[in-house]
Amino acid sequence: MSQGSPPGAGLRVGLFVTCLVDLMRPSVGFAAVKLLEDAGCKVVVPAQTCCGQPAYNSGDRADAKAIARQTMRAFAGCDYIVAPSGSCGGMLAKHYPELFADEPDASREAVAFAAKCREIVSFLTDTLGVERVKARYEGVATYHDSCSGLRELGIRAQPRKLLESVDGLRLVELEDSDVCCGFGGTFAVKYGELSGAIVAKKTDRIAATGADTLLAGDLGCLMNMAGKLSREGRQIRVRHVIEVLAGMTDDPPIGEGAAK
After folding, report:
1. Cα end-to-end distance, the chain, whole Å
2. Are the C-beta atoms of 213 and 239 separated by less than 8 Å?
3. How far is residue 194's CA from residue 192's CA, in Å, rounded to a whole number?
4. Residues 16 and 68 in one domain
5. Across-strand partners of 172?
6. The domain spanning residue 211 has which CATH number?
7. Looking at 65, 98, 125, which one is the last position of a domain?
8. What is the torsion angle, in degrees rounded to the nearest 10, for the CA atoms of residue 171, residue 175, residue 180 and residue 182?
9. CA dihedral for 40, 128, 248, 75, sign (positive or negative)
10. Are residues 138 and 240 in the same domain?
């Protein structure tokens, strides 16, 4: 890399879009592309489906393996695979090797693939060494640490570091920011009443910060919290952290217009 080149120059980075981003919040995908291209990466978006986590969490190893094989083929030739989700990122980086532990050849492929997988904010900060972004957001924000990103991938300081460089933004800490919001993928479906009680405690904590904006790195968590905040009539904007980091906040906040 020549002196003065952006940190990601020469890197072919595959964007794993995630199902929820593709279906519910495409703006997060576009924000991911902008951040990666601003860092100098060549971004490719292969044809892709789910990461396989719902099947894996439900004990359906056969379908999880089939999905994983398809994903690994789709991103062959990429220097890194980056996801705007700690949950999907954790599946790719941590659980693919576990899936194929009983198949030596496939295991080697899964381990090599997993070594190239990153959550996007971690990729920017830990892998590329990005310390600042060029973005502006007027508001007071608080940040929820999603379970998979925090516990599987060690993502905590990285988003806060980049958010500190956003002009106009003031970040306030959320009490129990590392406590689950109650989503948990299939958990929210299987245990709806318990999930609802957990997210009610979370929204109380969010409101207590006085922040006008809630940020996080996983769209499932954000949709869960946005829905509860909306039903409670709380006027708090909800956004994926990379929408703010990319300066792409023209779309309405997550959950805006949801039924009260």
Report:
1. 53
2. yes
3. 6
4. yes
5. 142
6. 3.40.50.11810
7. 125
8. -100
9. positive
10. yes
CB 212 within 8 A of CB 183: no
Domain check: are 108 and 146 in the same one?
no
Q: What is the residue range of 119's domain?
A: 12-125
- pTM of the prediction? 0.95
Give yes or no: residues 39 and 71 share one domain. Answer: yes
Listed residues 109, 125, 141: the one ending a domain: 125
Distance, CA of 150 to CA of 155 (rounded, Å): 5
Please list the pLDDT of the chain residue by residue as tens digits (260 residues): 456 899 999 999 999 999 999 999 999 999 999 999 999 999 999 999 999 999 999 999 999 999 999 999 999 999 999 999 999 999 999 999 999 999 999 999 999 999 999 999 999 999 999 999 999 999 999 999 999 999 999 999 999 999 999 999 999 999 999 999 999 888 888 899 999 999 999 999 999 999 999 999 999 999 999 999 999 999 999 999 999 999 999 999 999 854 33
Q: What's the one-letter identity of residue 96?
A: Y
